[in-house]
Amino acid sequence: MIENERITRTGITESLGIQGWDHLDPILLAALATESPLLLIGPHGTAKSLLVERLAGALELSMRHYNASLINYDDLVGIPLPEAGSNHLQFVSTPGAIWEAQFVFFDEISRCRPDLQNKMFPIVHERRIAGIRLEQLRHRWAAMNPPAPEDPDTTTGEYYLGSEALDPALVDRFPFVVPVPNWRQLSKENRRRLVTRQPTNDHAAAASLLEQVQACAALIEALEDTLHDWLIDYVVSVVDLLEQAQLPQSPRRAYMLARSVVAVHAARMVLEGDGAELEYSAELTLTFGLPQNASEVPPSRAKLIAIHRQAWEISSLSEDDSWRQVLEELDPARRIVLADQLELGDADISRLITQAVGGETSDARRVGLATAIFVAFQQRRDLSASAWEPLAQIATKVLEPRAMSSPLRPGPMTDIWNEINHWLPALEDCTELKLRLERNYVLCGFPELWLRYDWKDALEQFRADLKLFNIDEATE
């Protein structure tokens, strides 16, 4: 959740009687000013529906609130009747039909039947239904509970049976995908205000909100021209980094993110004044602009901040800057080699090594990578202690093998050892450093690592790392 102190209290949500949502004010204002679809995600009772109803009321817009888990298609279009003298249907509107709506809210969308979700695509994305343009429709918002995990922990009760992950194509129609705060995430002050249910000034809220929406919309076009070149660099870098982090985005999402960064920054300028920082606007957009927020396991805040900061740094450097060339290399190990080839300083190399080794999720790869880096740079680079110490600690397992005994019984451990023992004789008297490192790597990983990782696959990766760092023909 975004830290509330970064946002000045502006009163959009607070003036509507919604407590603890002030950090979302720029996102909500950006969505209203651009008339972009927005998806709210949170537990029951967190004021998702209440917010939408009060926003529509404050803006004096005709609203339709549909429970997507219960409605039928006829509830949206009315009663279909044959048109006299033709083969076409005409729709007889009912009080709840969508035709005259200006603000549509699909609640419980994660419990909606798949066939009806498909019919929502053109409403959300194109403002069309049955191929007919909804001329008056401006805002298309939705809400859902977090999707239930495949194997829910029934002892906690903190899941929603029946709440399914949305079709990826549908969630990709929402530029803003917004997790909302629950009770635990509210400050003590906000909890007290929520309990007291302080009355709202509807007239003042309406006048202020309409003025803010108009001001934000007016700012966006000017900002698009001002930020154009930087925005391209930033969004391309962000999407590349998200892909590397296994958070792939569609080309549509890349365009949405670019548009949303501008809108969120315009919203913050309206809400906070000229002191609004572009960097934080971009971070805020990334946090609340990814479809993965609606998945069973949303991306961690720490991972998104790291991606944002790297993209921000890349976009702040000139095209021919050496450090930018390094940062644009997505593979952390190749990034170190490139920095060395470009003759960057020891401090920069140390930083990249710390990131690469610390960010590696496979223990087997971490051991091999640390060993390759240590051997490659021990004589050539004066790395910082923060880089050398973990490298040495991890690489010692390979560089200084120790005798050990391990009882073998029939089972997976014995099978693994038999494979390794069959592979060893060819390397028994080797003098080449590379081959000795391979032997030591395989032996030091038995049995703990190889009970969790395939030793042959790990060895191939280790060989690739040795080759990458040019440790392939060296001898003692």
Put the structure in a nutshell:
The protein is α/β, with parallel strands linked by helices and 476 residues long.
Task: Describe the fold and architecture.
The protein folds into 3 domains: 4-79 and 93-149 and 159-307, P-loop containing nucleotide triphosphate hydrolases (Rossmann fold), CATH 3.40.50; 322-399, no CATH class; 412-468. The protein has helices spanning 12-15, 25-34, 48-58, 73-77, 114-126, 168-171, 188-196, 202-226, 228-244, 251-272, 278-287, 301-315, 322-328, 332-341, 346-359, 363-377, 385-399, 412-423, 433-444, 455-468; strands at 38-41, 63-67, 79-82, 89-92, 103-107, 128-129, 132-133, 139-144, 176-179. It is built from 20 helices and 9 strands. By secondary structure, the protein is of the alpha/beta class. Helix 9 packs across helix 10 (251-272) and helix 14 runs antiparallel to helix 15. Strands 2-5-8-1-9 form a 5-stranded parallel sheet, covered by helices on one side. A two-stranded antiparallel ribbon has the order 3-4.
